[in-house]
Amino acid sequence: MASIALPLLLFISAASATETVVLLYQNDGNWTNHASTPSAIFVQDALSSLDTAASQCQSYGEVILNKTDLSAFKEQLDYQAWLGNFHGSLWLGDSDPTPYQYNSEYLADNSSSKSNSLAQVLCSNSAPLPTQVDTDYSTYPTMAVESNGTTFTGLRDHIAFRFLGVPYAAAPVGNLRFKYAQPYTGSTAVNATHYGAACLQYGYFDDNSYGLNPWGNSEDCLFLNIYTSTLPGDAANTNALKPVMFWIHGGGQTQGSAADSTFDGASLASRGDVVVVTINYRLNIFGYLSLNDSVIPGNYAMTDKIQGLNWVHEHIAAFGGNPNNITIFGQSAGGGSVIDLISSPKAANLFSGAIIQSGGHGSDALADQQAATIIPLLESLCNETNLTGEARLQCIQSLPAETLLNLTYSEATKWNTVIDGIYALDWPIAQLAKGRPYINTVHYMSGGMPEEAQSLLTTTLSPNDTDFATNLGILVEAGEIKQTQADAVLASGLWVITNGSISNATHGGATSYPDAYNASVYVTTDAIISCYGASYASIGAASFAFESQWVYQHQRGYALSYYDFYDLCTFPVGKPEIPYYRCHSSDLYEVFGTYYIFDQPVRVPEDIYYTNAIQDMWTSFARTANPNVNQKYLTVRGYTTTQAFFEQWSWPSFHAYAPEVAAIQYPQPWTRGLPEQRQCEIIMPFSTLY
């Protein structure tokens, strides 16, 4: 871009958001062009002279833009005008001593909104785009935000501001191990320029063994990350605060991290004009140990999430977020966490929207069941017998963290939220059945993938398996389904194996599957996620539990780069006609738009357009409690592909009398009923909640 010559600072101290600043970036969803698409800093406060404007840009280590640069920001300036944030007068490097008068049909008043003495300014944004997991942020420009006496120093990148590794609770170590989360009372100067450690775990995020977690692991792990395109200044209008989307990662209560680059919130924040928060919470034994007493009661992970929400209520306005408009969302076990929070009285009034992605029914247990699996293992570690109460707690607190972590993968242990009468009153589905007075007030959206189990099963089954009954036996042995379910499936005749002649066709109540592997994937998907999710949605509708309700099923997926067993969860570049499985977690790139961090290709242009539609619907739900995106909003923002998506279709709300499900695909979505319901009638009578 052409700009007036101003000296650049080699070392830039953290700029402070005493003025409102917005990163302008036209996020068209094409992740291959993200780094080359122009970006600018819009200073929303009116400034009195060109020199003042140039100095303001210089304080960011940037330069003032010229008239020739404006065409790249037309949609962004129109959007700011539509919001009432842009008044039409701009200081530009090549303008006269008086402000340049910008024309937009969205300006509130084209005559009175412009001034010959006061104007806003556009500065360059030379900050780079993070394009890899182990991005070195040490050279990124910094930005400081003050909230309630604490200063947070974060970063500016090419498309968003990011504040990383923010402590939201006291470190759960020492005498706080196996205690409810406590408020953070540490330093009032928080360095938020790098991710914090992931919580202790095995698997993909155990240190950096898979190249996914260069920030390490620690018992001191209660950090959150914030992504936003707007930092409000001292004189900002609180009515302009953005919706907040509070992400809870999955991983079976034993794995995962808020710093997983899959959940980098910059693209979602940029595209949807929301504030994204991602949160760590204690995992496995550290988050879920319950010994069925008042001393070691369990549910520490739930208290982490609630404390994180309390932190957001206290501080998020300083980062541009509206504490009165928070949507919690999560996938897999993170979706189960959302279900738990919907039901928890301790989470009342902390959020107004909830999105459950592939969450099933949650993961809850009775306290005595949970304790029975772990007490024998703990007794063998403490060298004393019959320890109870505080003595037992002190013994366990004194053990090395690694010793406790080794219990995580014992076959005898499960790590679940426990029904304790405080944080969890009953099975969530039982509370839901009682209706609105028994859950938190919330607008609700849920759905998943058609073939979740293909990736969840990893290599338990082989695509070359030919015997359906043998596969069911393997699934029983692996604990994926029960023997009674396998027997009922075989006796029903509803799973018809055609050996490739017909693919997933339904007739006479039965469904044809091309092979034994395909049918086995569907059985497991129904047994562990889809049927539970459908039951939760149906009971919620029947009891009128939610303020509004929306249900979907993705018809498109894009496998995570490290989570695609047998290479069956994606189709080759340029060959969308090749059948593939829409697997568990294949919606995550689509929601967060983070393909570019993992160097993933655009298979076909529809990948971009589908991602655009998903991000626009998810953020519309966060903004308005309705995933049907406002058409005027799409026009102003120049989001033409999502406009086309909604031209002849709208997402119907879900009701007991009309249980309509959005089947999401690009270019043409459609509406259907809940999937696999005849199969669920066979499987669910033999299911249990624990």
Automatic annotation (TrEMBL):
EC number: 3.1.1.-
Annotated family: Belongs to the type-B carboxylesterase/lipase family.
GO molecular function: hydrolase activity
Signal sequence, start to end: 1-17
PANTHER family on file: CARBOXYLESTERASE
The protein, known as: Carboxylic ester hydrolase
Domain (Carboxylesterase type B) ranges: 162-668
Top enzyme category: hydrolase
